[in-house]
Amino acid sequence: MGRWRPPRPRGSRYITPEGAARLRAEVKHLWEVERPRVTQAVSEAAKLGDRSENADYIYGKKRLREIDSRVRFLTKRLEEVTVVDRIPDDREKIFFGAWVTIEDDDGNTLTYRIVGPDEFDVKQGLISMDSPVARALLGRRLDDEVNIHMGEKRVTYYVVDIRYQE
Description:
Layout: E1 14-15, H1 17-46, H2 55-80, E2 82-83, E3 99-104, E4 109-115, E5 126-128, H3 132-137, E6 145-150, E7 153-163
Parallel strand pairs: 1-2, 4-5
Antiparallel strand pairs: 3-4, 3-7, 6-7
Helix pairs in contact: 1-2
């Protein structure tokens, strides 16, 4: 069996200003802090002699390739994304960047922010606009009923709050 894998489908091209800033900060950290530190460690490991059996040298070179690959990916991604920094005119409708609170029939509430695929973090309540939950929510209004399929189970929620960050 070969190592070839089909390319992943491209995510949406939208990102919040906070998400773009995080990606730029990651590039800066990798390029200005992490890469020089690893380069120095590889240089010192190379001075020790036989590189074929020098684990610090081998793993350092591997880490440099990983850093360079991530920097290339982030740089290209930052060039192609669109930063959405304005609030929609219709604030009663769910669009990209909205904080949405939904409630089920038992009164349990969940709050999510709809963000781009490069910045989602479910633990912080940030969900990708490409996710099934976000797709079900986009375009809905206050008090709308939303049916979300979670595996084989279908759950009904009601939109109880929509907010946008200034």
